[in-house]
Amino acid sequence: MKNYFIIIVSLTLITIGSLTLFLRFISEPDSGKRVLADSIEETQIFAQQLKHNSNEINEQLNKNRYDITQLRYLLEHRKRKILERISDDPTILVQAFDEGEKIRLQLPPAVKNLVEQKVEIEGKIEISHFDNFKSKTSKTLYKLSNDSGDKTELFFLNVPPTLVTNMHVRVNGIKLENKMLVLPKNGQEVEIHKSRDGVLASTTVKKIAVIMYNFLDNAQQPFTAEQIRQELFVKTKSVNTYLSEVSYGTTHLEGHFHPDADIYGWYTIPYLSAAPATCEISGPWQEAAINQAAASGFDVNNYTTLLFVLPAINNCTYGIAGATLGGSPGIIWTQGEIDSFVLIHEFGHTLSLNHANAYLCKNVFGTPVAIDGSCMSEEYGDPFDEMGWIHGLHFSTYHRLKANFSDALHFQNITSSGSYTLEPAETSSQNVKTLVIPRKLGVNQQVPDYYYLEFRQPFGIFDTFLTGDPVINGVSIRIGKPTTTSQSLLIDTTPETATFSDAALAVGKTFTDSTEGVTISTLAITPQQATVEINLFERTCKHNPPTLNIYPNVIWVTPGTSVTYSWYVTNNDSSICPASNFILSASVPPGFTFNFPINRLMLYPGQKYGIGFSVTSPTTITESVYNLHFTATNENFPEIYNTILAQYNNLNAVNPSPSPLLCATDYNHDGVFTTADLLIFIPNLYVQFYTTPNADITQDGLVNIIDFGHIFKNVSYGCQ
Hints:
By secondary structure, the chain is α+β, with helices and mostly antiparallel strands. It is built from twelve helices and 36 strands.
């Protein structure tokens, strides 16, 4: 058995480079997962800095008459060091909290706010989405405003829940100044109270105002009001023309005072564009511009959409444009560029639309496939939706529905096998334009995601396809969620090519999702309709080991520290299964204590639940590395379980102990060691390697894929 798997791995992973590619596709990414730091060494250095600073603060507090000025200086220094790292690694608030709480209890009221604390806050959330189309990356900022107008930036351990701007929410976590790490409470990170202005109102007339502003150190006026009006209203492929065409003629833009937008500015706001370390586009800059525009008659209550135009900002690397996700009014901003296609994309965000991504799947041998258990999402990867690639094509029917541009008559829910027809998405008739197939069952037997089928044809000014384009000679398949702001995922039904331009399912081809029991075949295509055959097979229940995530996974603290952990358990049973109960347990070194708030979870397939608890070591520990094992076991099927490792490391120990032997075994507990176990083992090994002491095997001062290659080839396979 051992030799068999060595052969498989050797054939698949010929070089270290192919190993990287292999790992990329066999592990489905969890975008909410955060590693505590880039390396153990970096984490340890930061922990030592915190410890040194805390010792200095305690020395001041232990004096009979401490120097309040010196104490404030030390506290400010500590706060600044933490704030500098939060954006890249918000879990450092967990690292700092225990010692910080001890310090805070001794402080006079005047300086208590300089130390992090656990809080519960509520208010309206603002979600700002920045787009960098050149690098195909985006960044989303979450800020919570209370009744006093104070804003707190929120950071999440996991992918944030479904939120739109102006929703009223309550969150718990660790807060320092205006930044907060959100921690789970009762299994959820956010308690949502939907506000009536949480989602942009479904109006057919979108009232828009444009405010142009610049800075004390950058007074450029790169665009005229007429240039902006051209992009919004006048040019052939303007924003207004697009909205009218994609909404079947039901929606258009106009200003409150003028039919072609109300444009204010230029204004010079009292800020330096180079001053902040990060962009303040959605904060003080915007507020200052609004205040100046108000003197010219601007009233925010007159508009459903605000567009802010400003010159290019060198230090704003988030992207050239952005928008709020939902909100009333919806906010759009663009810096250094005015382009109707970019503005259409950002306008989509204000309608609560997220990105249209491509879904890249590969099997265990690295071969591209249409669908598999291990896939990854490519940002902006859908070439046939303006929420993906920016080149002026219509929104998909999935996004038209979310933007309230389509009604229920355009969608047909498929509950049985049979042949079905689709009209082109672009036509304005009331016939079916989208087939919606339940992909899996989830919490309370609800359907968390579906397959959405659409058929495209050349139409109007924007969907100018050529006769031979695959997208008009087949049916496009996307995965999407029915009621959330999640991203859509375009399936590549021709995975053997290196492009998604031929992603549509052509006549005579069949797409099969064997896991969920769905097959789709395209039977015929004419300019007027597409005919498909859909087969839904009976699904069987298969219990699988749960997915476990824990934060922080590695931490350096002084002996006796109580560390707060957040542990997430996800039920991976097949969607037809009923809810399962999972027993939670822990194995910790002698003398360590832990306190689970609950030790039993009931989860439906696909459901994730998070608990918070603390682990405390004895003050007498002497070793460097202490392993904590946390296990979730299916109560009715005890052979189905999973265990995750976290390290509680002694900051007082100088030299970390060597890591234990890494061993691949029967990870899915099905009684045999197969390639299915490698799918679990290799990604876990890869993550553990980069958070393991002494990872620099080659001792060249770098921890990289070369070191991982040395570890991988010495792994023991099939050991117990």
